[in-house]
Every structure is written in structure tokens, then in C-alpha cells.
């Protein structure tokens, strides 16, 4: 075949670049498909990253809604559970439900019955002193050891228009949603760090006994947790997005998100390089949940807010099961519905990925989905405003 200058020009300007682009796309596609397949296999190899059987788990907000569902799920998994809330009545009900759902009773060496331990503590965790007292009481039942796992579920939402909400409502939600979590987590982390292995401190001392060791004393004696601990903070999809009606609620959940992202990084200081044990930190971005709290928030929720968020959601039991699925895979950020997963990917920032393949795929689509949601929500708010002006509402 005789190549003419025109043929050569066509090949250089069309075929070659297209072939390179095609090759790049096909390789990326293969990587994506491979990661989608490898991730589940890798999860199987790693096994359960969040074991709860035989662990002491401390759950705030454990009397109703998500907190109750989480406590019952933990009982099924064989954990010892301490729940905390203000009202004794609902707390006692939850304890009975946990007993009914508990894993089968095992026989101990003496032939007796070694049952799981379920306790409740009545306390207002928005008060720092009471939050500390509750943690003290829970620890005292387990030889003074801080609980192995802390799960904070206490929270409330009072949706309203910004101009109609009272400053007391802003303060109440910040006090429960943020400070109610902060007081518990802050005290728990301090105790987790303080519960050090005597072997670690003694080995640090012996290593510097000859006087020839290198490095600062603070680095040699940096404490390591004796047992692996976990903290799970319940936030909301409203920590990833904001729209009309949630001006008093979303900031409290954004605050939790900031706290979780900072703590996740800082707690790496206490991770043992050999065993990987330390203090794990997770955040749960809960979506719409059909619970007693949801019924209460609908009393003040503006109509336009309902139109934007839609009617889909999960029961508390479904949310609890989904939460543990994510935790067992070792995810830092856990979501339990598709819409919130889009928001998580779109607003991920500098945080660990979950499923690499899905995160990559959703990352390609998320900007378009977010733009569509932006347009739709803006349209609904403007349309609502027009109706208000015409006094049609």
C-alpha cells in the first residue's frame, strides 16, 4: 500500500490519538472492574473488622430509635451492653428487649450459666458531670475498664425556617447533638489512652537504661492502648449537605463531622505498628430514619423541606443492621442508603475511601447528581416563595 501525505496526516490526527485515548479508557475500565471484584474478596480475607462478641459496648441514646436498635443488634451479636439515656422507663424496656434478643446462653466451666451483661444508666449526657458519672458507672461494672466500644446515638432535630426558629432551639440541638457526643467521647478517649500496657512502659524504661538510646524520652515512652478500642459517632446526611429547614440542625452534624475527621487522624498516634491495635474512629452518616424522633421533627418541619428530602427512608432496625455491615468492613464513614452514599463521595474531602471501585465510579457521577439536586432544590424553594407571596400556602 502506498501512503499519501493525506493518509499519513489523517492517521496522525485521528487514528493515533483515538487509539491512545481508547487504550487509556479501556485500562481504567479494567482497573475499575477489577477493584469492584477485588474489594469484596479483600473484605473476606480481612474478616470482621469490628468484632463485638464478648466486648463491652456503651451506647448513648439507647432508650429509643437508632440507639435501641443498635443495642438490640449488639445483644444478638453476643456483646455486653450498657445503654444511657435520661428516662428510666424506656431504658428498662430496651434492656428487656436486649435480653430477649441475646445470643444463646452458654455454660461456663462450673456448669452454671454465663450470660451477657445488660445495664442501663439514667443520665443527661448534655451535662458534662453526668456524662462522666455515667461512664464511671459503666466502667465500674467491668473492673474499672473503659468500655471497649463507644457508640453515640443520642440526638434530636427541630427543623424550621431560620427566621422562625428560636435561639433556644439552636442551643438545644448543639448541646445534645454535638456536646452530648463530645463530653462522652472526650472522656472516653482520655481513659482509653490512660489504660496503658505495663509492658510498653517497662520496655521503654529498659531501652533507655544504658544511656545510649536515641530519640527523645517522650517518643520512647509514647503510650499505647492495652486493648483495641472503637468509637462510633452518629452524624447525619445533613453533615454532607445543607438546605432549607435545617439551619439549626445541620451545623451540629457538620461539627461532628469535623470532630471525627480530626480525631481519626490524631488517634493514629496510639496505633501499635505491629498489631494494628489502637483506637478506631468511625462516623455514621444516617439518612432519613422512621423513628419516634422522625415523628417529632415532622411537627415543625416546613412543607418545602419535606418536598426536597422526599419520603424514602429506613427503619431504625434497618439502619442499625446497615451500620454494622459498614463497621465490619472497617469503613471510616458509614452510610446506609444510596443517596447519602452519593453525598459522601461528593463531599469526601481528605478522608479514607470505603469500597475503592464504587467510590471511584460514584465519584464520576456525583458532580452531575449534585448539580441536579442543586437545581431541583433551588427551584422548589423559589416556587415555595412565590406561593407565599401569593398567599397560596
In a nutshell, what does this entry contain?
This protein is α/β, with parallel strands linked by helices and 393 residues long. It has helices at 5-46, 65-76, 88-101, 128-140, 167-194, 198-207, 217-220, 250-266, 292-297, 303-309, 316-328, 338-346, 356-389, and strands at 56-60, 80-85, 106-107, 113-114, 118-122, 149-152, 229-234, 279-285, 289-290, 314-315, 333-335.
Could you give the topology of this structure?
Blueprint (H helix, E strand, L loop, with lengths): L4 H42 L9 E5 L4 H12 L3 E6 L2 H14 L4 E2 L5 E2 L3 E5 L5 H13 L8 E4 L14 H28 L3 H10 L9 H4 L8 E6 L15 H17 L12 E7 L3 E2 L1 H6 L5 H7 L4 E2 H13 L4 E3 L2 H9 L9 H34 L4
Parallel strand pairs: 1-2, 1-6, 2-5, 6-7, 7-8, 8-11, 9-10
Antiparallel strand pairs: 3-4
Helix pairs in contact: 1-13, 2-3, 2-11, 4-5, 5-8, 12-13
Main beta sheet strand tally, sense and closure: 7 strands, parallel
The number of distinct structural domains comes to 1
> Unreliable segments (pLDDT under 50, ≥5 consecutive)?
107-113, 206-220
Our Rg estimate from Cα atoms comes to 26 Å
Number of helical runs?
A: 13
**Coarse morphology:** globular
How many β-strands, per DSSP?
Answer: 11
Question: What structural class do the secondary elements suggest?
Answer: alpha/beta
Strand order of the largest sheet: 5-2-1-6-7-8-11
Mean pLDDT, all residues: 85
Secondary structure: helix percent = 40-55%
- Which architecture would the CATH scheme give at its second level? 3-Layer(aba) Sandwich
- Identify the quaternary structure here: single chain
Termini Cα gap: 77 Å
Protein name: 3-dehydrosphinganine reductase
Pathway: Sphingolipid metabolism; Lipid metabolism; sphingolipid metabolism
Enzyme class: oxidoreductase
Function: Catalyzes the reduction of 3'-oxosphinganine (3-ketodihydrosphingosine/KDS) to sphinganine (dihydrosphingosine/DHS), the second step of de novo sphingolipid biosynthesis.
Amino acid at each position: 500500500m502506498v501512503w499519501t501525505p493525506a493518509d499519513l496526516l489523517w492517521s496522525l490526527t485521528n487514528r493515533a490519538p483515538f487509539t491512545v485515548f481508547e487504550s487509556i479508557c479501556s485500562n481504567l475500565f479494567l482497573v475499575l472492574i477489577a477493584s469492584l471484584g477485588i474489594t469484596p474478596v479483600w473484605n473476606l480475607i480481612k474478616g470482621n473488622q469490628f468484632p463485638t462478641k464478648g466486648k463491652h459496648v456503651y451506647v448513648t441514646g439507647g432508650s429509643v430509635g437508632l440507639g435501641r436498635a443498635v443495642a438490640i443488634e449488639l445483644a444478638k451479636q453476643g456483646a455486653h451492653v450498657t445503654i444511657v439515656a435520661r428516662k428510666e422507663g424506656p431504658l428498662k424496656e430496651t434492656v428487656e428487649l436486649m435480653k430477649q434478643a441475646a445470643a444463646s446462653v452458654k455454660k461456663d466451666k462450673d456448669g452454671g450459666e454465663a450470660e451477657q451483661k445488660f445495664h442501663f444508666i439514667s443520665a443527661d449526657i448534655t451535662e458534662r458531670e453526668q456524662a462522666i458519672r455515667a461512664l464511671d458507672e459503666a466502667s465500674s461494672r467491668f473492673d474499672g475498664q473503659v468500655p471497649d466500644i463507644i457508640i453515640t446515638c443520642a440526638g434530636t432535630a427541630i427543623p424550621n425556617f431560620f427566621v422562625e426558629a428560636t435561639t433556644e432551639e439552636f442551643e438545644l440541638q448543639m448541646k445534645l447533638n454535638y456536646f452530648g457526643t463530645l463530653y462522652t467521647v472526650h472522656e472516653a478517649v482520655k481513659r482509653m489512652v490512660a489504660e496503658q500496657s505495663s509492658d510498653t512502659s517497662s520496655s521503654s524504661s529498659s531501652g533507655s537504661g544504658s544511656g545510649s538510646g536515641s530519640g527523645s524520652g517522650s517518643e520512647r515512652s509514647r503510650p499505647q492502648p492495652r486493648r483495641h478500642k472503637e468509637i462510633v459517632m452518629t452524624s447525619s446526611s445533613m453533615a454532607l449537605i445543607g438546605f432549607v429547614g435545617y439551619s439549626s440542625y445541620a451545623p451540629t452534624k457538620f461539627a461532628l463531622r469535623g470532630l471525627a475527621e480530626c480525631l481519626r487522624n490524631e488517634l493514629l498516634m496510639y496505633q501499635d505498628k505491629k498489631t494494628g491495635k489502637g483506637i478506631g474512629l468511625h462516623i455514621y452518616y444516617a439518612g432519613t430514619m422512621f423513628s419516634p424522633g422522625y415523628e417529632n421533627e415532622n411537627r415543625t418541619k416546613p412543607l418545602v423541606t419535606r418536598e426536597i428530602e422526599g419520603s424514602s427512608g429506613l427503619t431504625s432496625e434497618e439502619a442499625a443492621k446497615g451500620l454494622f455491615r459498614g463497621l465490619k468492613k472497617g469503613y471510616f464513614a458509614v452510610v446506609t442508603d444510596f443517596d447519602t452514599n452519593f453525598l459522601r463521595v461528593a463531599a469526601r474531602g481528605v478522608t479514607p475511601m470505603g469500597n475503592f471501585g464504587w467510590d471511584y465510579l460514584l465519584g464520576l457521577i456525583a458532580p452531575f447528581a449534585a448539580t441536579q439536586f442543586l437545581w431541583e432544590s433551588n427551584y422548589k424553594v423559589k416556587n415555595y416563595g412565590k406561593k407565599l407571596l401569593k398567599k397560596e400556602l
